[in-house]
Amino acid sequence: MQPPGVFYPFGPGDCWCSHTDDGSCPLIPLSESFHFFGLTYRQIFVNNNGHLTFNTASGAFRPDWFPSSPVRDIIAPFWTDIDTRQNGNVYYQQYTSGDVLQAATLNINQYFPNVTFNASWVLVATWDRVAYYPTTPTVSYVSNIKYNFLII
């Protein structure tokens, strides 16, 4: 479980991705449309290797230059070669009301004081204690880092 005040909530009650190497969560229909560089998306994939894509899942484990592809929009908060077959979890959860929206609103307004912002939808994706590829049952290169990412 996350330390209080450091991360947005994750874990119990969240959806989680299967334990794979270079895999992805199933297609996630978004509760609200997401506007990204002039395009509007109604679906997203949370990929095992620390990124989110919109049109297709992606197993890409080596970061590309941006823009990485004219046909693949990507949000890459933690792009690295992750293998969760032995260790770690990838979680996601959408929120349309409650404490997470209030916290997101407060955080955005705190860090961007010249913007008046009110969150109506939030997706929290978390890579929790994930392992770098390669891992084995006897040797694991487990990151103790929990990476929690919020899109609003």
UniProtKB/TrEMBL annotation:
Residues 77-152 form the NIDO domain. InterPro entries: Alpha-tectorin, NIDO_dom. PROSITE patterns: NIDO (PS51220). It comes from the Eukaryota. Pfam families: NIDO. One of its GO terms (biological process) is cell-matrix adhesion. This is NIDO domain-containing protein. It comes from Denticeps clupeoides. The lineage of its organism: Eukaryota, Metazoa, Chordata, Craniata, Vertebrata.
